[in-house]
């Protein structure tokens, strides 16, 4: 009996020493089955990384969050966001519900639904409301590019001012209003000049209000801009019922027995099918930390990623050649935030993108090149992309002495295996924060011969132009970007 017990114990020792146990990873399940006879190896490979301005301009669609304001970020530079849009009557030909010759204006107010603040809400924002110049009207059939890194915005210009500059205390965003006409909260309200309101009330209903195209020739819409003060971007929902122009006026009642007057309101709103809009987000890198890395000719130790602003190029091509004739159990690329220890609290105000995408960029497709999915690992079905398995969403880690450090991890196991076993190309990879983007997509092997285009809207990716994060590059001393591969020799 003792001999049998000794033989069993020896067999257990042999089994345990023959298998190198590997812990689970950030995404997906275990690396290898719980009982096997495979010797596994855990290797970490260096990634060469550098950062560039993203030449692909973003588009903010009518249903997306719009931005208004000014940011001055010492790491990324300045951001200035302006809005141009049309608010119109809810039907055409339009008429006021009372006799037009009896109307007397009380006030005219521009209202916008605020869904949040990105930045420092303790500093007020100065807002200007102008009329859009008739010579540069918004095309309601066109979706304008939003982000212009270092370039001028398209030709939509402002004309006459519709009121004095409005100083908005962003701490009042949650305020509510409840009166006879309004029951709303998170609503930015800007009182405009009465002369503008009287002009709208006096337009001939048989001409100006005969159709939306006719009204556009009388009034081209609102240009809402900010001065270079404050340090925040307002998030605006232009489609919300609380975004509107309110004309408050009193009128003579039709009751001949009573010559008194009453007060009412008429609203102009954003029409999804007939109102044009453009949201321009213009950035400057002058005097920012990012500027020094954009101009660098060596591998970057810090990677600055900004939604619709920058991207990083990752190169691991030479390292993967060392893995010939191996079985890959798991291959992961991990990137780690380098928190700002100089401007304490700035990372909490200017938050990180909730999602990063890893793809490869095919520059051989002319004239502009094209983004392609990571072969085999990034998969797109009727339910959308396999983000849970592939990775890219934020993972928080405690890394003493720092807490809640942002990390992102990507599973590239099948991609690496294809390079090893089928001699598939090893690409330069692109890491960025997408919003309203598209990819040239191929199915996993062996059905990877055809391609289609898939889209990432703001619901899957990030809010347009919102979010930035500084990450450790391939040469960072502590938070080094890395490729970790768990593999077995054949």
Question: Which helices and strands, and how do they pair?
Answer:
Layout: H1 2-18, E1 40-46, E2 48-53, E3 66-73, E4 77-85, E5 104-120, E6 125-132, E7 147-149, E8 158-161, E9 166-168, E10 176-178, E11 183-185, E12 187-192, H2 194-202, H3 212-218, E13 222-226, E14 231-237, E15 244-252, E16 261-269, E17 277-284, H4 289-294, E18 302-306, E19 310-315, H5 317-320, E20 326-336, H6 346-349, E21 357-362, E22 370-373, E23 380-381, E24 384-385, H7 387-390, E25 395-399, E26 402-411, H8 413-421, E27 429-432, E28 437-442, E29 451-456, E30 468-472, E31 482-489
Parallel strand pairs: 7-17
Antiparallel strand pairs: 1-31, 2-19, 3-4, 3-14, 4-13, 4-17, 5-12, 5-14, 5-15, 6-8, 6-9, 6-13, 10-11, 15-16, 18-30, 19-27, 20-26, 20-31, 21-22, 21-27, 23-24, 25-26, 28-29
Task: Report on this structure.
With 490 residues, the protein is mainly beta. The chain has two domains: 22-54 and 286-489, no CATH class; 77-284, no CATH class. Helix content is 12%, strand content 40%. It contains eight helices and 31 strands. It has helices at residues 2-18, 194-202, 212-218, 289-294, 317-320, 346-349, 387-390, 413-421, and strands at residues 40-46, 48-53, 66-73, 77-85, 104-120, 125-132, 147-149, 158-161, 166-168, 176-178, 183-185, 187-192, 222-226, 231-237, 244-252, 261-269, 277-284, 302-306, 310-315, 326-336, 357-362, 370-373, 380-381, 384-385, 395-399, 402-411, 429-432, 437-442, 451-456, 468-472, 482-489. The strands form seven sheets. Strands 3, 4, 5, 6, 7, 8, 9, 12, 13, 14, 15, 16 and 17 form a 13-stranded mixed sheet that branches. A five-stranded antiparallel sheet has the order 1-31-20-26-25, covered by helices on one side. The chain has a five-stranded antiparallel sheet with strand order 2-19-27-21-22, with no helix packed on it. β23 and β24 (384-385) form a beta hairpin. The longest helix has 17 residues, at 2-18. Mean pLDDT is 87; it is low at 1-23.
